């Protein structure tokens, strides 16, 4: 048969054209940060420290990256919003349990997997609300075309399940953000570069082709023990779960040799209209809980590559347990997202002593052995690409009416700034001088945990419609510009 003619042929040729890498164009970035996130503590000796998010924010501000993006403080996710994925009973438990009444919830502790790894701490539910609210509002702003990239370093808690906590994660903000994106986007791609398998997100979308999950992680006698190459999804979701199991010590070159070809193939086969990127920093070299050997630049190269496709992208945090390296890397990656090179000198800030003795913005690889041979990586990559070829090319979705947003903020730019940023809101965003948290492995100076979690009231101005996923209207944050002396002054 000769070449096809007519409109069908033209459509086919158009669909199969390679994706253009247009991420070099200037893209608007919405950055979500709540100044209270660093006040929460999982407890003495626990490796998960929300304070790392505050450290990253301090570097981001002192490098002047705030000038290149819009900064928001999202409304915390409500119980109703969390229940779009999690069970009512589980969310109700999270909202009620405290360190003072934990003994009254003995049965629930076991049922919901709350204990050593996932302790009950002061302000637990508020902490979950901050993480979930930032990811949901980031997704909502992407949906409404108000930004090209949404950034929430407090998000990325990928282990939380529908009705249980897992791996330091209680509410799966990623799933909530993806559900929001699915209201407008037919296909969403989830990419996970945490050292641990993104099991909670994979499980949530294991039976659908609306979301493709791609996870690069350590596999073999390592938490959570899932993410085998043969775990590819079931039913309509078969071959839409992609797992790339890795061994200890993988370095920048090896990681790039599998990450970029895999993601390029996924983009060409799946044709997502939106991307969620989980940037867990425990895949960095010298992480307290990790076993990979990525440098800061090797980790950030993944962010830059995903950005290059020019799709609406929700960028989230995740794991990372050496705080000085987590904050360095997320700051550097924020610079990549806004198109500004930062470093190598660390600017003076309240947390300057954490970055000694070199005081540079860099995480270097160690001399640990790379157990990922070229033959092993090629074998896994070949199978992954083979599985991708079995998927339906760019699966379609039935068109239906999109439910209205919970809070329609079309005219938010015209709102009176004095009403939106009243003195109470501004006071709540001012950082306390004494709210540094413990760090057993970094820094000195007798840091203390200051727990100051005031109850936050969120007014819901419109009802949740059936089948709808409400968005969360955000409140612009107070931007503090660093002075030459390293202090802050209010703009």
UniProtKB/TrEMBL annotation:
PANTHER family: HISTONE DEACETYLASE HDAC1, HISTONE DEACETYLASE HDAC1-RELATED. Its main location: nucleus. The keyword Nucleotide-binding does not apply. Belongs to the histone deacetylase family. HD Type 1 subfamily. Residues 46-335 form the Histone deacetylase domain. This is Histone deacetylase. One of its GO terms (molecular function) is metal ion binding.
């Amino acid at each position: 048969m000769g070449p096809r003619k007519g409109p069908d042929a033209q459509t086919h040729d158009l669909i199969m054209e390679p994706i253009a890498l247009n991420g070099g164009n200037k893209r608007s970035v919405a950055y979500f940060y709540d100044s209270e996130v660093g006040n929460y503590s999982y407890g003495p000796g626990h490796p998960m420290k929300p304070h790392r998010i505050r450290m990253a924010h301090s570097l981001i501000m002192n490098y002047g990256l705030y000038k290149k993006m819009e900064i928001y403080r999202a409304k915390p996710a409500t119980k109703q919003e969390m229940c779009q994925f999690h069970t009512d009973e589980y969310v109700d438990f999270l909202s009620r349990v405290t360190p003072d009444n934990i003994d009254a919830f003995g049965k629930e502790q076991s049922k919901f997997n709350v204990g050593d790894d996932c302790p009950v701490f002061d302000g637990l539910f508020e902490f979950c609300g901050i993480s979930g609210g930032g990811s949901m509002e980031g997704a909502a702003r992407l949906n409404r075309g108000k930004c090209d990239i949404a950034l929430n370093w407090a998000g990325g808690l990928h282990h939380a399940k529908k009705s249980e906590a897992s791996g330091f994660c209680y509410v799966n903000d990623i799933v909530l953000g993806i559900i929001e994106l699915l209201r407008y986007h037919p296909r969403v791609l989830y990419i996970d570069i945490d050292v641990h398998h993104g099991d909670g997100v994979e499980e949530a979308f294991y039976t659908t082709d609306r979301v493709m999950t791609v996870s690069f992680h350590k596999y073999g006698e390592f938490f959570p023990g899932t993410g085998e190459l043969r775990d590819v999804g079931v039913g309509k979701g078969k071959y839409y779960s992609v797992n790339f199991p890795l061994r200890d010590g993988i370095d920048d070159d090896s990681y790039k040799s599998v990450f970029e070809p895999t993601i390029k193939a996924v983009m060409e086969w799946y044709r997502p209209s939106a991307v969620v990127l989980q940037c867990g920093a425990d895949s960095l070299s010298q992480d307290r809980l990790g076993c990979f050997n990525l440098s800061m630049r090797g980790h950030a190269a993944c962010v830059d590559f995903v950005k290059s496709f020019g799709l609406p992208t929700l960028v989230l945090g995740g794991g990372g347990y050496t705080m000085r390296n987590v904050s360095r890397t997320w700051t550097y990656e924020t610079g990549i997202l806004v198109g500004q090179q930062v470093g190598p000198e660390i600017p003076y800030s309240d947390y300057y002593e954490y970055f000694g003795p070199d005081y540079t913005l860099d995480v270097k690889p160690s001399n640990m052995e790379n157990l990922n041979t070229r033959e092993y990586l090629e074998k896994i990559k070949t199978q992954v690409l083979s599985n991708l070829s079995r998927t339906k090319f760019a699966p379609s979705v039935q068109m239906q009416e999109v439910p209205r947003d919970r809070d329609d903020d079309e005219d938010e730019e015209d709102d009176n700034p004095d009403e939106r940023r009243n003195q109470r809101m501004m006071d709540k965003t001012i950082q306390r001088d004494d709210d540094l948290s413990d760090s057993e492995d970094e820094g000195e100076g007798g840091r203390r945990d200051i727990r100051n979690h005031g109850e936050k009231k969120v007014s819901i101005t419109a009802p949740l419609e059936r089948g709808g996923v409400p968005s969360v209207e955000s409140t612009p944050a107070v931007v503090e510009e660093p002075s030459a002396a390293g202090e802050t002054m209010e703009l």
